[in-house]
Specification:
Oligomer: heterodimer
Distance between the termini of chain A: 24 Å
Largest sheet of chain A: none
Helix content of chain A: over 70%
CATH class of chain B: Alpha Beta
Bound molecules: adenosine-5'-diphosphate, magnesium ion
CATH architecture of chain A: Orthogonal Bundle
Number of helices of chain B: 10
Structural class of chain A: mainly alpha
Radius of gyration of chain A: 20 Å
Largest sheet of chain B: 6 strands, mixed
Strand order of the largest sheet of chain B: 6-7-8-3-9-10
Distance between the termini of chain B: 26 Å
Number of helices of chain A: 15
Shape of chain B: globular
Helix content of chain B: 40-55%
Number of strands of chain B: 10
Radius of gyration of chain B: 18 Å
Order of helices and strands of chain A: HHHHHHHHHHHHHHH
Number of domains of chain B: 1
Structural class of chain B: alpha/beta
Order of helices and strands of chain B: EEEHEEHEHHHEHEHEEHHH
Largest interface: A-B, 21 and 34 residues
Number of strands of chain A: 0
CATH superfamily of chain B: P-loop containing nucleotide triphosphate hydrolases
């Protein structure tokens, strides 16, 4: 089966879901998975090159909060607010990453710097609670009753958001594939092994790393903005902070960091894990159908941690990568799910 | 083509290269020899931008190189190999060379052109048949060849070859030396060749420069160098006669 056609087929099936009677809670789950998949895909395009960021929670929160704040305080339509949020997030990524790359802060040290970023952004949201609602969360003001294309608000109608989410998800996969097929991919693979040897053959190491980092941050910020428009509610813990940053890493590693569908599978798994745990442990305060927030909140971090270590040791290519290896071994041919040469 | 003046590198308090002057003419092969630790690789590192010189100037085709970054220097037409090969293990042999072909030519060429540069370079060093293999399948000689192919794929005007012969057996050495000569003759690439193994080098190079403890102690034709008292004393020692024969053999 060709991956490209499979993904196209999947997109069509997803769009047809409402026609076969999928609605309400199941449709909500699908939309949520698609939005998170896009965030995870954004992380994976840099994470696969050993650029492990624990700061993507910050980028996601920036996307959501800036969009909502511009709407509430300046009446700025998200059509303009989202691009502004993406630009600001891209600049933040540049400001944080440039010195890191310039001074060769790599590996664990890069992870630590970005981890701090997650927490700083969360703290800023909490400190400015008079404007942002702090840890209680924040809601974009409804624009009249019902639908508004101007405000990108579609209350009580999930179908529009399904199409937005499917489209976004598809763009994410396309970006993933473009990065995979680009010369920058070879440069980044080389950089991840040996920066000096890379620059000796003409690679602009800092620039290549910055390019992928900014693209990745902006994608994640877009997921945050979309999440905000869809849920009409954001809080520092549902789209930001260290918890979300770790959830992003977890989902991608589990799903498959070297496969275009890995982050999507990761999104499905994290969501169901969170749901199962929530129902079995029972964080009773959350209303199941209305205000469903699906993420690491309430999901004990140590379980994430243990599973993460398990996957890194036993299934480093994640579920999709491991599965496609298995299948290609059986058939004696490749499944056309591109996997990195990392062995 | 290349004029180096008063080149000095101090690491901490230790002077690795001390006030070295030399120049390279277009189309020649300059041999750079000297005992271990005499500063040969350090000179290469300064020429290629890995280290900035403490003092001194490096003029390449009327442009100053000191202070420029390695990728800029590479794109100006200086390719280098590393003494200890540094292949990219996550890429195939061909991808290694293609990466160099693309980024070493300022990213201004098409992807397909980069791959054809890569294939040419691999053909030159004799790795074309196994181009799609993993780097892990290469032995010492293969890794040296790949190192050379990466540098060649960047389409340099000046090639800095650092100890291309280390770890090779005799026939491999002869082959590698011949390869460098072909590169100069056929591709018109000027070469500075750092080498520890003297006999083979003397047969191929046009001129030799000798370093000792970071200082230039002699410079001249291979025959002159092998008869230079100072060089014999610090470096060639008891092998002098044998190497001198090799130098004469160059004709
Ligand atoms: N990055 C460095 N930091 C400190 N000392 C160095 C560095 N690179 C080389 N040296 C020292 O400089 C001297 C010359 O080294 P090198 O140029 O590698 O010698 P060669 O290539 O002639 O064997 C050696 O004593 C070495 O230890
Ligand atoms: Mg050396």
């Amino acid at each position: 089966m060709n991956n490209k056609y499979f993904i196209g087929f999947l997109a069509i099936v997803l769009c047809l879901l409402p026609l076969i009677g999928v609605q309400g809670y199941p449709l909500h789950i699908v939309i949520t998975i698609l939005i998170w998949s896009f965030a995870y895909t954004g992380w994976s395009i840099m994470g696969r090159f050993g650029l492990v960021s624990l700061g993507h929670g910050a980028f996601m929160a920036m996307g959501g909060y800036i969009t909502a704040l511009l709407w509430n305080y300046l009446g700025m339509s998200p059509w303009i607010g989202i691009p502004i949020a993406l630009i600001i997030t891209g600049l933040l990524a540049l400001i944080v990453a440039y010195p890191c790359f310039k001074f060769r802060i790599v590996g664990h040290y890069f992870a630590l710097v970005t981890l701090a970023l997650s927490e700083v952004v969360r703290q800023v949201i909490i400190a400015t609670r008079d404007y942002t609602g702090g840890s209680l969360g924040y809601t974009p003001e409804p624009h009249g009753e019902g639908w508004s294309i101007y405000a990108i608000q579609f209350p009580d109608d999930r179908i529009v958001f399904l199409y937005i989410a499917v489209f976004t998800w598809l763009i994410g996969i396309i970006v993933w594939r473009m990065v995979d097929g680009s010369m920058s991919r070879y440069a980044l693979e080389a950089i991840s092994e040996d920066e000096d040897a890379s620059s000796a053959v003409g690679v602009q190491v800092t620039r290549e790393k910055l390019k992928i980092t900014i693209l990745s941050a902006v994608m994640t910020a877009f997921a945050g903005a979309l999440y905000c428009q869809y849920q009409m509610f954001i809080s520092p813990d549902t789209i930001g902070g260290v918890g979300i940053s770790l959830q992003i890493v977890f989902a991608v590693v589990v799903g498959g960091i070297y496969s275009s569908l890995g982050p999507t599978v990761g999104a499905i798994i994290t969501l169901f894990l969170a749901e199962i745990l929530r129902v079995s442990i029972g964080t009773a305060t959350v209303n199941l159908t209305e205000n469903l927030t699906i993420n690491a909140a309430g999901f004990p971090l140590f379980i994430y941690g243990i599973m993460l270590i398990g996957f890194i040791i036993f299934l480093p290519k994640g579920i999709v990568g491991g599965l496609s290896d298995l299948l290609s071994k059986k058939d004696g041919q490749s499944l056309d799910i591109k996997s990195s040469k990392a062995k | 083509m290349l004029t180096v003046k008063n080149l000095t590198k101090v690491f901490g308090g230790f002077t690795a290269v001390s006030s070295v002057d030399f120049s390279v003419e277009k189309g020649e092969i300059l041999g750079l020899i000297g005992p271990n630790g005499s500063g040969k690789s350090t000179i290469f590192n300064m020429l290629s931008g890995v280290h900035f010189p403490t003092t001194g100037s490096i003029n390449f085709n009327n442009q100053e190189l000191s202070g420029l970054f390695p990728h800029v220097i590479c794109n100006m037409g200086i390719g280098r190999t590393f003494q200890i090969p540094r292949p990219f293990k996550r890429l195939s042999i061909l991808e290694n060379a293609a990466l160099a072909g693309y980024f070493g030519n300022n990213q201004k060429i098409s992807k397909s052109k980069a791959w054809s540069h890569a294939e040419e370079a691999l053909e030159l060093v004799g790795l074309k048949d196994i181009a799609n293999d993993d780097v892990a399948t290469l032995g010492a000689a293969g890794l040296k060849k790949l190192e050379l192919a990466k540098a060649l794929a960047t389409k340099p005007n000046l090639l800095l070859a650092d100890e291309s012969l280390g770890g090779l057996d005799h026939s491999e050495m002869e082959q590698a030396a011949q390869m460098l000569k072909n590169i100069r003759d056929e591709l018109d690439i000027t070469i500075i060749w750092v080498e520890h193994i003297m006999g083979v080098l003397m047969k191929v190079v046009d001129r030799v420069m000798v370093l000792d403890s970071g200082q230039k102690i002699a410079e001249g034709s291979p025959i002159e160098i092998t008869q230079n008292k100072k060089v014999i004393e610090v470096y060639l020692g008891s092998d002098a006669d044998e190497i001198s024969e090799a130098a004469k053999g160059k004709g």
